[in-house]
Amino acid sequence: MKNILLITVGMHIITVFFMPQLKGWFALYHIESRFFLPFQFVTYMFMHADFWHLFSNMFGLFIFGPLLEQFMGPKKIIILWMVCGIGSGVLYSGYNVYRINQLNHQIETFSENPDPEVFNRFVSSNRHLFNPSIYDLVDSYSRNPDNPELIDRAKSRMLAVRDRQVNIPMVGASGALFGVLIAFGMLFPNTQLFLLFPPMPVKAKYLVLFYGLYTVYHIFVSNPEDNVAHFAHLSGLVIGAILVTNWKRDRRNFY
Questions:
Q1: pTM
Q2: Which tens digit of pLDDT belongs to each residue from 120-153?
Q3: How many domains does the chain have?
Q4: Which end of the chain, N or C, is less packed with Cβ atoms under 10 Å?
Q5: Which residues does UniProt call coiled coil (predicted)?
Q6: Which three-class secondary structure state does DSSP give residue 29?
Q7: Range with the poorest average pLDDT among 5-19, 78-92, 206-220
Q8: Both 9 and 75 in a single domain?
Q9: Residues 192, 234: one domain?
């Protein structure tokens, strides 16, 4: 755990103060992005958006990691961290492929049969990616649905949103941290933890349950302005649970 903390904090310092271009290389991009490279499934875990993003992940590791490492040993804890981090990146990429395919389908539908209503729905569902001037185009196109110039402008805006979505990177060790969190909850379910906000005691199993439900809720609600990769969090929880369950079956290997 100490080595993971030092490496992750060190990489953040390097990218912020010395080599900011590393974040562009090491963040995880959509597989169709021109910036995508296979090693990003590993390196994205060591990149963070800002100090508070880094602090929240490393603070969670600092709280839950040491006891797990004492119980599981350094080999198992590094396997847990890396498999959950890489696995959540892979699963999130698959989820991203599904989302981009939905955008492609909307664009293809519009291209085959240009319709102001289709464009209006596209703008509404992706409004956080447009500047306010888009509503002038929405209004003009609604009034002139057969205007070829407006049709081309609408299609161009849709393609621009699709390209922007493809090139949004993911960074952070949250998937790996959620794997540690579920492992702690499964191995020490009745351990009393004292929360800072709100200041109250809670058992580990209930804290993990809350985080799991919170993550699932945000996946289904899907706030378009929420830039947190909740699906990666859920992936880390699931992969961590599978690993710990498998290890617990063979106690001679686990202990």
A1: 0.86
A2: 988 888 887 788 888 899 899 999 998 999 999 9
A3: 2
A4: C
A5: none
A6: coil
A7: 206-220
A8: yes
A9: yes
Q: Which two tokens stand for residue 161?
A: 């949103």
Residue type, 132: P
In which domain, by residue range, is 122 found?
103-166
Q: Which of 110, 112, 119, 108 is nearest to 142 (CA)?
A: 119
Please, are residues 218 and 230 in contact by the beta-carbon 8 Å criterion?
yes
Which of 146, 166, 186 terminates a domain? The answer is 166
- Which amino acid, residue 100? I
Closest CA to 247 of 177, 182, 193: 182
Q: What is the dihedral of CA 18, 21, 27, 33, to 10 degrees?
A: 180
Over the stretch 34-73, which tens digit does the pLDDT of each residue have? 999 999 999 999 999 889 889 988 988 998 899 999 999 9
Q: Are residues 129 and 87 located together in one domain of the fold? A: no
- Residue 155 makes CB contacts below 8 A (sequence gap 6+) with 107, 110, 111, 114
